[in-house]
Specification:
The protein is built from twelve helices and 18 strands. The chain is α/β, with parallel strands linked by helices. It has two domains: about 5-150 and about 310-340, Alpha-Beta Complex (Quinone Oxidoreductase, Chain A, domain 1), CATH 3.90.180.10; about 155-290, NAD(P)-binding Rossmann-like Domain (Rossmann fold, 3-Layer(aba) Sandwich). Strands 3, 5, 6, 9, 10, 17 and 18 form a seven-stranded mixed β-sheet that branches. Helix 5 (about 150-160) crosses helix 6 (about 175-185) and helix 5 (about 150-160) crosses helix 11 (about 295-305). It is globular. The relative contact order is 0.15. Bound molecules: zinc ion (2 copies). One zinc ion binds near residues 100, 101, 109 and 111.
Length: about 350
């Protein structure tokens, strides 16, 4: 077979198309992976919608997608990976030569390429993946969960950037990544984990995935009241901002303890306003997060998922890839957790 089906952004407009494209040929330093399960990311939804960001970033004709689980069909290079291995991959390809890369801080590489964003992605029957980005996964982990480990990596990176044992944690935004970060916080021994969202569907999903979590809508009950109810006297120790909503960020700053620490994963608008004097006088620490630790982060994800962190309840829908339109429209509606596209 020299042709394969792939999901491409065929034209500079809303939507995607299934197209017959050339099956990639193996080359030195790469693995040819037979794709089994893929997962739809927020990034993919932006590309489907053809928002201003994707108009600037995506070249029509490109295969999209970056979250997958597959099996190595062929591989060429000096590596311990072999044919038949079940793998996923780190979705960011870094330069390996800049100051940060050489110092082992690849997540801060200035010259990062995104699979399925800046180059062809993996929503296809086969994909060519650089060996450097391959990740071996524990066989005990559900393949559907493996398919969204890249997104789980964002959650892990955000949650683990500060120590969590015994801390009171506020997470603003209960999309799949916010919910996964909450799961990590509970797993790591946080005392109270409070997650906020406007959507009752997403709050209910958070309660299902993370037993013991407090999931609230701040429009119905202010965060300060919830904190009081939980016996949090001085404010939250750790804040994880996952929503990109300016109101959520401001609510978070208001409800932090003096000396509290905030990690920001949500993408905010350029005109987002906060009262910087609150950051100054409350001696807050704020840290931006992009991507995930390229070696240790994946190691920790494998370890958590193969012990007792179960993310399968986050999967709410699975479709064959041919029903991608239904899947993407559902994703845009927000009435879902993780959506899996099957390529088997
Ligand atoms: Zn993703
Ligand atoms: Zn670099």
């Amino acid at each position: 077979m020299t042709k394969m089906n792939a999901l491409i952004k065929a034209k500079a407009e809303r939507g995607l198309t299934i197209a017959q494209v050339d099956k990639p040929k193996i080359k030195e330093g790469y693995a040819l992976v037979k794709i089994q399960k893929t997962s739809i990311c927020g990034t993919d939804l932006h590309i489907y919608e053809w928002d201003p960001w994707s108009q600037k970033t995506i070249k029509p004709g490109q295969i999209i997608g970056h979250e997958f689980c597959g099996v190595i069909e062929d591989i060429k290079g000096n590596t311990t990976f072999k044919k038949g291995d079940v793998v996923t991959a780190e979705g960011h390809i870094v330069c390996k030569e800049c100051r940060n890369c050489r110092a082992g801080r690849e997540t801060s590489c200035k010259y990062t390429f995104g699979i399925g964003v800046n180059i062809d992605g993996i929503f296809a029957e086969y994909a060519l993946i650089p060996i450097t980005n391959l990740v071996a996964v524990d066989k005990k982990i559900d393949k559907r969960v493996v398919s969204f480990m890249d997104a789980f990596g964002n959650a892990t990176q955000t949650a683990l950037c500060y120590p969590l044992v015994g801390e009171d944690v506020l997470i603003t935004g209960a999309g799949p990544i916010g919910i996964m970060a909450a799961a990590v916080a509970k797993f790591c021994g946080a005392r109270n984990v409070v997650i906020t969202n406007r959507s009752e569907y997403r709050l209910e999903l958070a309660r299902k995935v993370v037993p013991g979590i407090v999931a609230i809508s701040p429009q119905k009950e202010p965060i300060s009241e919830v904190a009081k109810r939980l016996g949090i006297v001085e404010g939250f120790d750790i804040g994880l901002e996952m929503s990109g909503a300016s109101q959520a960020l401001n609510d978070m700053i208001d409800n932090m303890v003096c000396g509290g620490k905030i990690a920001l994963l949500g993408v905010h608008k350029p005109d987002t306003m906060i009262d910087w004097n609150k950051v100054v006088f409350k001696t807050l620490t704020m840290k931006g997060i992009y991507g995930r630790e390229m070696y240790d982060g994946w190691y920790k994800m494998n370890a958590m998922l193969s012990s007792h962190l179960d993310l399968t309840p986050l999967i709410t829908h699975e479709f064959p890839y041919t029903k991608f339109e239904e899947a993407f429209e559902l994703g845009l509606s927000g009435k879902c957790g993780k959506i899996i596209l099957s390529w088997e």
